[in-house]
Write a structure and sequence with these properties.
Rossmann fold, 24% strand, single chain, alpha+beta, DAGKc domain-containing protein, 2 domains, 456 residues, Tumour Suppressor Smad4, 6-stranded antiparallel sheet
């Protein structure tokens, strides 16, 4: 009775103590489950390490590009706690490069790294973009770009990792550990690259998406509204609609120069060379390159032909269509209302623009080659949407000259907007590791429940 009377007489303190105790219990439960998850992943990695010790092959040499500033400065701690133990127990020879400034990851890939069996990018989308750009600017790019890449998602934005791997995993430790272990036991998947080139011929390479316009302006402005806390993600679109809704920020009468996608023809594919025989070929078979397919008789008159079209838009999203090896471009109409702009912006928070894309219908000829892009307005009866979808191989746009103070987004990173701006798809340019499945099933949120291995 004394306890009940004390609680009743001091209900504010009791409520505060209960809240603190509940938070502490939840925190302890999460740390306990994360510890057990890492224990399971380390056990799994040790199996591969033991096999490596028994074999006569040299250890797998991996180059790790670590961004310690990722995830608000937590990058190094996350790496040392969740990544390094798995790599060491798996018997890998690790060459660690820690970046200290912006752009250093690109310079490391261009100048420092020489040989590797795999490249591990420990950071976010910005670090990945720098690594990819550094690889593409190497003198030995054709051979070096064939080295598999593993993404360890330590950043706040991990667009490609979420797109390619485990979109249903929400546990940070499991996500990081699963991606790290994929460099040991995962499969390989080809990924397209985007070449973004400005008027000064400077190129930036991306693997996720390119975004420019009103939505990008709002998302860039998001960091300035940090004092709104979790509401800043939604308020940034409201602020744009109320304070920054100007016709000058929209793009009118923009000329697009584009080429249509091609699935392969005698114009764009390497053709077999005629073998010249010599007398010594009676004893030694002549060496020649074996091609996957002979495109000599495949004709596509539209391949590489530059066409023009005139469009109006307030926002552009471009990303690789990995199924069709082409560039999907989504244009938001200039006629969008403020309420529709806010509604679409809020949808972008919970959904990647790539997930909501409706691929345009393509006209095909008998050889399966695309003849032209198809511009369409969405015919959804439930949503009065006037978005235009384009499907191209390359796109060059001449933007207005008064864009010096505007920026656009490449793989979640900000860049100064350039004109003319060229986007080009590079099909199947890189190979990325992906997880074949969860090695450990994370437990439900129950106090101190141990995880179990996935059933075979």
């Amino acid at each position: 009775m004394n306890i009940i009377r004390t609680v009743r007489n001091n209900w504010k303190k009791s409520l505060f103590a209960t809240a603190i105790g509940a938070w502490g219990l939840k925190y302890a439960d999460q740390r306990w489950r994360d510890w057990n998850l890492m224990k399971m992943y380390c056990t799994e990695a040790k199996k591969y390490g033991d096999l490596m010790l028994k074999s006569t092959n040299r250890p797998k040499r991996v180059v790790v590009i670590l961004n310690p500033a990722a995830n608000k400065g937590k990058g190094r701690a996350l790496y040392e706690r969740n990544v390094a133990p798995i790599l060491n127990l798996a018997g890998m020879e690790v060459a660690l490069h820690v970046t200290q400034s912006e752009g250093q990851a690109k310079r490391i890939m261009m100048e420092t790294v020489e040989k590797a069996d795999a490249i591990i990018v420990a950071g976010g989308d910005g670090t990945l973009s720098e690594v990819v750009t550094g690889i593409m600017k190497r003198a030995d790019e054709p051979t070096f770009s064939s080295i598999p890449i593993c993404i360890v998602p330590l950043g706040q934005t991990n667009t490609l990792a979420r797109t390619l791997y485990l979109p249903s995993v929400h546990n940070t430790v499991q996500f990081i550990a699963e991606m790290t272990l994929s460099s040991v036991s995962g499969g390989l998947k080809h990924v397209d690259a985007l070449n973004v080139k400005g008027g000064d011929d400077k190129s930036v390479y991306a693997v996720s998406n390119v975004s420019l316009g009103l939505f990008s302006d709002s998302e860039i402005r998001k960091k300035r509204n940090w004092y709104f806390g979790p509401l800043k993600d939604r308020l940034c679109y409201v602020i744009t609609a109320v304070r920054h809704w100007k016709n000058e920020l929209k793009f009118s009468n923009i000329i697009f120069h584009y080429t249509v996608p091609c699935q392969g023809c005698n114009r764009c594919k390497e053709l077999p060379k005629k073998i010249e025989y010599r007398w010594w070929n009676i004893f030694i078979r002549p060496q020649h390159k074996v091609l996957e397919k002979d495109y000599t008789d495949v004709v596509n008159e539209q391949c590489g032909v530059v066409k023009d079209t005139n469009v109006n838009f307030c926002h552009l999203d471009a990303f690789a269509n990995r199924k069709a090896n082409s560039l999907d471009v989504k244009l938001t109409s200039n006629d969008i209302t403020k309420s529709d702009f806010i509604k679409k912006g809020w949808k972008r928070i919970s959904k990647n623009p790539e997930d909501t894309n409706d691929t345009a219908t393509i006209s095909n000829n008998d050889d399966g080659n695309r003849n032209d892009i198809y511009l369409k307005k969405d015919g959804n009866d439930t949503d009065d949407d006037k978005d235009i979808h384009l499907n191209v191989a390359s796109l060059t746009m001449n933007l207005p000259n008064d864009i010096a103070d505007r920026k656009f987004i490449i793989d979640s990173e900000q860049f100064e907007l350039m004109t003319p701006l060229t986007l080009q798809i590079l099909p199947n340019k890189f190979k990325f590791y992906y997880a074949r499945g969860n090695h450990v099933i994370a437990p439900e949120s129950k106090i101190f429940k141990m995880p179990k291995f996935r059933n075979a």
